[in-house]
Fold these 4 entries.
Entry 1:
Amino acid sequence: MRARGPWILLLVLAFVLPGAAGAADFLGPESCKGCHPAAYEAWMQSKHARATDSLSETQKKDARCLSCHAPDQSAQSVSHVTCETCHGGGQYYAPAYVMKDAELARLVGLVDPSEKACRTCHDASSPSLKPFNFVEALKAIDHWSAERTAGKQPRAESASPEPATAKKK
Ligand code: HEC
Ligand code: HEC
Ligand code: HEC
Ligand code: HEC
C-alpha cells in the first residue's frame, strides 16, 4: 500500500469503527453529475430516477411503498432509487482525492452493487410480469458503458483500445 498521510488513516478509522459504518450522509444524485455526466444521463432515463413518481400522493406517505420506491426519503431526504441507494452514501468517498483511489473509496463507503442488493427490492412481491433476471436487468440499467466510452476510464484495468493516457495521471 502507498504511504498516506495520517489524516487519511484517521478518516478511515473513524469510518470503520463500530457504529460509524453506514452513517455516511447522502449528497444527492446532482452531486455525482459533474464528474459522472454519462452515468447521470443514463440513470435519468431509467425508471429508478422516477420511482417515487409512480406513487399517488397517499402512497408517497406510505412507508410500505417508500421502502422500495424512495428508500432514502425519510432518513436522507432523497427520493427515488438513486446513485447512493445502490453505491452507498457519498459523503466520504465523493471528494476527488478519494474517488481517484478505488481502494480508499471502498473503505469509506463506496459499494459495488450485487445481485442480492437488487433483490432486496426486486423480490417476489414486486409487480413484475417476469421473475427478476439479474443479467437482463443489469443491461436495462446500464450507465457504465457510456461512462467508460465517454473518455473517462474509471477502472484502470478495464481493457480498452483507447489510449489510457489522455486525462489520467
Ligand atoms: C470530484 C469528482 C467525482 C465526484 C463528485 C464523484 N465521483 Fe465517482 N469517480 C470519480 C473518478 C475520477 C473516478 C475514477 C477513479 C479511477 O480512475 O480509478 C470515480 C469512480 C467511481 C466509481 C467506480 C469505482 C471503481 O473503482 O470501479 C463509482 C461507482 C463512482 N465513482 C460513483 C460515484 C457516485 C455514486 C458519486 C456521487 C455520490 C460520485 N461517484 C461522485 C470522480 C467523482
Ligand atoms: C419490495 C419492494 C417494493 C415495494 C414494497 C413496493 N414496490 Fe412498487 N415496484 C417495485 C419494483 C421492483 C417495481 C418494478 C417491477 C418491474 O417492472 O420489474 C415496482 C413497480 C411499481 C409500479 C409500476 C410502475 C411502472 O412504471 O409501471 C407501481 C405503480 C408501484 N410499484 C406501486 C407501488 C405501491 C403503491 C406500493 C405500496 C403499496 C409499492 N409499489 C411497493 C418494488 C416495490
Ligand atoms: C439500481 C442500482 C444503481 C443505481 C441507481 C446506480 N448505479 Fe451505478 N452501478 C450499478 C451497478 C450494478 C454497476 C456495476 C455494473 C457492472 O460493472 O457490472 C454500476 C456501475 C457504475 C459506474 C461504473 C463503475 C466502473 O467500473 O466503471 C459508475 C461510475 C456508476 N455506477 C455511477 C453511478 C451514478 C453516478 C449513479 C447515479 C446517477 C448510479 N451509478 C446509479 C448500480 C447502480
Ligand atoms: C431500493 C429498491 C431497489 C433496488 C435496490 C433496485 N431497484 Fe430496480 N427498481 C426499483 C423500483 C421501485 C422500480 C420501479 C420504478 C417505477 O417504475 O416506479 C425498479 C425498476 C427497475 C427496472 C425497470 C423495470 C421496467 O419495467 O422497465 C430495472 C431494469 C431495474 N429496476 C433493475 C435493477 C437492478 C439491476 C438492480 C440492482 C443493481 C436494481 N434494480 C436495484 C427498486 C429498486
Entry 2:
Amino acid sequence: MGEIGKFFSWEIIDDITAIKNCDKSFFEHNCSGVPKEIRWFFDSKDIKNGNKILLTLIYQDKKYEAHIEIQNFESPRTRMRWNGDLKKEFDEVLKDYRVKSGKENGYPSIKFTKISEDIYEIEFIGLDLLNDESINPLETIEIENRVEGKRKKIYTTKYERNPKNRKEAIKIHGTRCMVCDFDFEEVYGEFGKDFIEVHHTKPLYSLEDEVEINPEEDLVCLCSNCHRMIHRRRDKILTVEELKEIMEERSVFA
Ligand SMILES: [Zn+2]
Ligand SMILES: [Zn+2]
C-alpha cells in the first residue's frame, strides 16, 4: 500500500477508496490527472512513456473502458482517460448537481472504489444528500381533506428548495419578508444580502404530482421566523394573510 492523504485534487482514504474533487477539465476533456503519489492506487506505479494501462470503470452497474497513460514526454504526468459514453453520463450528473445544489459553477466529487487491480467502481458523492428531505426542517406535511374524506392535501418543501423557483420568486417578490417586512441586508448588512426563504403556498394532492409552478401566485418570500410560523401547525399551513392578522392583533395590545 502507498501513501494515504490528500494529493492535489485527490484524497486517498484507504487502500480501496479514493476521492477526486472534480474540476472543469474532468467534465470537458473526459480525463483527470493522476499525481505520481497516487499511481500505486491505480496499479500504475511503474508506467512508462507510451504505456497504456487499461481499466474498467463501473458506473451505475455499467462497464466503461478507461486507461492510464503518460501525458507529456518532457515533464511526464500521468492521466486517466475514459470513453465518450461515460462523458455523456457525467454531463448529466453535472447538470443535475448544479440544479440541486444551486451552485451554478460548482463541481461534485467522485469516489473510486477498487474492485480489483483494473476494475474500479465510481460514484458521485454529495448528490443523495441534496435529495434528502430529512435535512430540511420544514418537512412534508399532510393535511386530511375532511370534506372529501379521501384525498390528502400535501404540503411539501420540494418546490421551495428548487433553485430555479427561488430565483423566479425573488425576482418577482424581492428579498423583503412579505409578512413582517424584515430585510436581512438591513439587519445583517452585506452578509445578509439576497437572503430570503421561499415558501410554496399551494398544496398538492400527491407527492408525485408535478405541477406547474406559477412563481408569482404560488411562491412567497418570507423571513426565517415567519416561514417557521407559517409551518408551525402540522395540520394547517397558514396563509400570508393569516399570519399578518396574527401579528396585527398582537400589535394592537402592544
Ligand atoms: Zn417575516
Ligand atoms: Zn414553506
Entry 3:
Amino acid sequence: MKSVDIIVIGGGLSGSATALGLMRQGAGKVVLLDEQLPSQRLSRGNFGLTWFMCKGANNPAYAKWCRRAAMQWPDFAAELEEETGYNVELEWNGGAVHAFGEEEFRNYSESIAALKKVCGEVGLDYPVRMLNRSEFADIIPDMQLGEDVSGAMYTEEQGHVNPLKLLAALRCNFQKMGGKYHGSRSVHAILPHKNGTVTVKTSQGDYQCRKLVVAAGHGSSRLLASVGEKLHIYPQRGQLMVTERHERRLKVPLLSVRQTPDGTFMIGLSSEDTALDTRVTPEAMKSQAANAIRLFPMLGKLNWVRAWGAIRVMTPDGAPIYSRVQGHGNITVLALHSAVSLAPLQASAIASWILGSDEDEQISQFSNGRFHV
Ligand SMILES: Cc1cc2nc3c(=O)[nH]c(=O)nc-3n(C[C@H](O)[C@H](O)[C@H](O)COP(=O)(O)OP(=O)(O)OC[C@H]3O[C@@H](n4cnc5c(N)ncnc54)[C@H](O)[C@@H]3O)c2cc1C
C-alpha cells in the first residue's frame, strides 16, 4: 500500500484547484484521483463565467465569498499562465444580465439595492449598477439589441474564461509542482482508522493518507455515506448550446449569452431538477434560443452546432459545502456549484484551511451541518 500525505478524490475544477493550492502551500506528497465518468463532465461542460453578481441575495456569507473570489481572478489567471504557459482566456471586461421590459428592469434595480445592503452589513462593496438601454448598447457597440431589451444589470469587475483550458492549467500546474494525478482511477471505499489516517481503496491499488479531501461531485455522497456523513447536495441539470463561429462582436459576457474569443456564441440559462440525466431536451433548446434571439436578433441567423447537458452539484441554499466530516477531522468534503468562479479561493483559502493553517471564520459558515435538521 502506498503512503502519502494527502489524497484528493475528484479531479474536476474543485478538486484540481484545491490540490494545486495544497502543493503551492507545501503540503508534501499529494495525490489527485479521478475516475472520469462521462456523466460527470460538469467541469468541462460549464459556461465559464467568473461571476459574483446576483450571488448570495439571502446569504451574506456567500455574497462576500463570491466577491472575494472575483477580486482574486486576474492575479490567479496570470499566475496560472506564468507557471504553466496555459492562457485560460480570462477576459475581464465586466459582465451583465439583460432585462426585458420595465418590470424586470425595476426588479433588478431592487435586487441590486438589496444586495448592496447585504454586502454593506459585512463591510463589503457591491459594485453593480443598472444601465438603461442606451448605456447597455454603448458597452456592447457591435451587437444590435432586441426591441424588448430595457437595459441591464452590470459590473466592471467580473469576466469569463475557457473552462477547458482552466481545468488543464490547474492539473498541469499541480503536476509541475510535484503532485501526482491519476485519471481513470476509481475510488471504491474510504476507511478511516483510529490513529487519524485513512485507507483509500481504488480500482488500481490502495493508498494510506494523513488527510483526505473528498471533492468528487455527485460521487461524493456514496463515499461519505460509508463514514456516516449525509451530504446535502442534489442534481440540477443545465443545458448549453453553441453556434458556429462568427466575427468577434460581444466582448462583455452576459449570464445567458457569451461569445468566446474563437467566435462561437454560447447560450444557456436552464436549470431543471432531474436525476443524473445529461441529455438535452427540445423544450430547453427552444426556450434558450428564443430568449437569446429576443436579446440579440442576429443570433437567429447563425447555425447551432452543438448542445449538451451537465449536472450541477447543488446545495439547498446554493452556497458551497466546505466541511470536516463529523468524527473524522482529517476528512474534508468540498461540494459546490460555481467552481469556476470560486477556483481562486479553492487554491488559496480552502487549501490553507485543509492544512489547518488558517481557521477562516468565513469557511465555518459553509459546513454541511447547516442543513442537518
Ligand atoms: C450548464 C452549466 C453551466 C455552468 N456555468 C458555470 C459558470 O459559468 N461559472 C461557474 O463558476 N460554474 C458554472 N457551473 C458549475 C461548475 O461547472 C461546477 O461548479 C464545477 O464543474 C464543479 O466541479 P467539481 O470538481 O466540484 O465537480 P465535477 O466536475 O463533477 O468533478 C468531480 C470529479 O470526481 C470524479 N469522481 C466521482 N466519483 C469518484 C470516485 N469514486 N473515484 C474517483 N473519482 C470520482 C468524477 O469523475 C469527476 O471528474 C455550471 C454548471 C452547469 C451545469
Entry 4:
Amino acid sequence: MKRVHVTGANGFIGREVIARLREAGYAVTGSDLRASPDVRALDLRDRAAVVALMGELAPDIVMHGGAISGAMLATDDPALMFDVNVMGTLNIVEAMRRTGTARLVFLSSNAVYAEADTRDPVPEDAPCGAADAYGASKLAAESVLRAYAASFGIGVVALRISSVFGAERVTPYLISQTLDAVRNGAPIEVTDTRSNMRQFVHVSDAARAVCLAVAAVREGFTPVNITGGTYLSEEQVVRLLLAGLPAPALSVIADRGRHDDGRVGPLDISRAAALLGYAPSVDIAEALTALARPIVPAITPTS
Ligand SMILES: NC(=O)c1ccc[n+]([C@@H]2O[C@H](COP(=O)([O-])OP(=O)(O)OC[C@H]3O[C@@H](n4cnc5c(N)ncnc54)[C@H](O)[C@@H]3O)[C@@H](O)[C@H]2O)c1
C-alpha cells in the first residue's frame, strides 16, 4: 500500500483528494496549518518542522496543496504569498530530498501563464509570465520543483488547474459572490464579457485528476493542464448559476479587473488525457445551476 502525504489537508481540494485517495486504497496522512482529526499541524514556512514531519511519515508520494490559494488573497501582504507558496514548496521538496521521498504532485494554476488577448488554446509550452503575486508564486514554485527534478531525481507532476468550484469552496470568487448577492438582495453585476472568460472545473474532476497524477507521477518535471472543458464569459456563468431562480436582474458593468481565473485562453488538456487518462466528467452548466438550488427557498416570498 503506497503512502501519500497531503499538505493543505483541511482545504477545499485537499479534503476531496484525501477522500478519493483513501477510496483508491492509499495510506494517506495529512497536514495543514491547524491540526484537526487525522491532520497534523504543520506550518509550511517552518523548514525544520517540515523536514521532521517528512522524516517521521516517510511517504512514497507528496501531494502538495497547502498554499495561499488565489490572487484575491493576501493582496496587502504579497510577501506572505511568496513565503507560503514559494518557500513552503521549497521546504517540502528539500525535506523530500533529505528524507528520501522521490515523487511529488503539485497543485499549480493556470495563473502561471502570461495573459493574452487571443482565445487560442493554451498548451503547457505556452509562454508563462504571471501578472500577479499568486501566479508569480506558483510559477516560482514550479521553477524550484523543476530544478529539484533535474538535479535530485525528484519526479514532479505540476497540475496547472483552472478555477475550481463546488459547494464547499471557502475562498471568495465569482460564484460565491453572486450567490451572496442573491441571498442579500444586492445587485448582481457581471463584468465586461470580452476580457474576463471563465474556465471552471468542478472539485470532483479536479480531485480525480490529482489522484490520476498521484498514480502516474514518474521522473522529471511535467506540467499538466487541468480544466473542466468549458470556456464561458462571466455573464454566461452567472446566467447558468441563476437559471433556477426567479428572474434575477443582471447588470453588465465595465471590467473592474476581477480576474481570479487569469485572462488566458482555454487550456489545452490533451496532455492530461494522454498522460493521466483525464477527461472532465461533470456537466458544468448543470453543476452551476445545482449550486444555486439550496438558496431558492431563502429568496422566494412565503405569503
Ligand atoms: N481553488 C482553486 O480554484 C484552485 C485552482 C488552481 C490551483 N489551486 C491550488 O490548489 C491548492 C488548494 O486550494 P484550495 O482551493 O483547496 O484552497 P484552500 O484555501 O481551501 O486550501 C489551502 C490550504 O492550505 C493551508 N495553508 C495555508 N497556509 C499554510 C501554511 N503556512 N502552512 C500549511 N498550510 C497552509 C490552508 O490552511 C488551507 O487549508 C492551492 O495550492 C491552490 O493554489 C486552487
